[in-house]
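Researcher: Before we compare anything, I want clean individual predictions. No alignment, no superposition, just each chain on its own. First chain goes here; please echo the sequence and then give the structure tokens.
Model: Echoing the first chain and its structure:
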Amino acid sequence: MAKRIELKGLEMYLLPQKALYIPSYQLLVISDWHLGKLSHFRREGLFVPAPAAEEEFERLDILLQELQVKEVVFLGDLFHSQWNSDWEKLKAYINLHAQQTLRFTLTKGNHDILKDHHFENFSLRVKSEVILSEGIVLSHEPLPDLPSYMVNIVGHIHPGCLIGAGARQSFRLPCFHLKDRVLTMPAFGKFTGLHIMKPEPQADIYAVVNDAVILVS
């Protein structure tokens, strides 16, 4: 079950698939996918599961089938570090969907370090940020000196929270974190760590619990 919120009067939904949907723009926002991460680690000699890029694309396909989407914005760290063959699979996937009047945009993150020639023949716009008319700006990291009339939707830190389960047990869960006009999204990637956010009176924490997003703090 998605969680409905409003920012600057704009309706949006926090999705249990760790994505954000803005109906009035038919806009799907995804952060920190880190595609190619497993291939990168295996090349470095680390024992990790075999990469399965097609399974990752299926996760996005489900959202595109369930929602009315005209544009997908990736909030940075779309790809993990240096080039590997998963990048070509991503290009083929996006180019195929872009032929169906779907637009893809990347706001570059610190892991998006590929050379310009890797973006050739690729239906992906690359920008520093995306600004919506309501005064909402989408970027990988929080913008410095954000004007008081704006709200920033970001990724980068892979926010998580601890949920107590009794008997001194707790669960680490991905979450959406809202504080000081900055909404931080969880990482869409399956193989990313969590930065545990501490509960604060002035912050809202929305935990992703199975197929629901729940306000926990």
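Researcher: Okay. Second chain, same rules.
Model: Second chain and its structure:
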Amino acid sequence: MAAKPTMLTAEGLKNLEEELAELKNVKRKEIAEKIKVARSYGDLSENSEYDDAKNEQAIMEARIATIESILKTAQIIDESETSNDKVHLTSVVTIETVGTDRQMTYKIVGSGSNETNPAQGKISDESPVGKALMDRCVGDVVEVETPGGVKAFKILEISK
């Protein structure tokens, strides 16, 4: 079974490649040095510095494997081929909570891409709000199941 492609923006691809280079070229050396220093303290069975460095190494290697996996299946979204008629990956969507004046603007990014960051206004196309907005038009009202109950959002604007 082929792996599901990971949809990335050009910016998301660049960020992952930079993170991978940092982990492989800088962090690996730093952690190797920590392990070397911790080994010099003697008995490894009661050496918390050694255990901490090995745990840090395992976490870093897992992150490297994750990024490499994402990059193997990455498909870059060509934003020049997209329109503002409907919500799609890379759309910037302004919505309003129905019944309030509360407006929010989100960029729709690919799930699994590690670009998702709601605090920065980037939500996944597979998040509840992102999924509800996909392929919808300006003026559409969508209902979304949220932790606070069902909320209705009206799409005010779609841009790139």
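Researcher: What stands out in the second chain?
Model: The first helix runs from residue 10 to 39. Additionally, Strands lie at 6-8, 74-76, 92-97, 103-109, 122-124, 141-146, 149-159.
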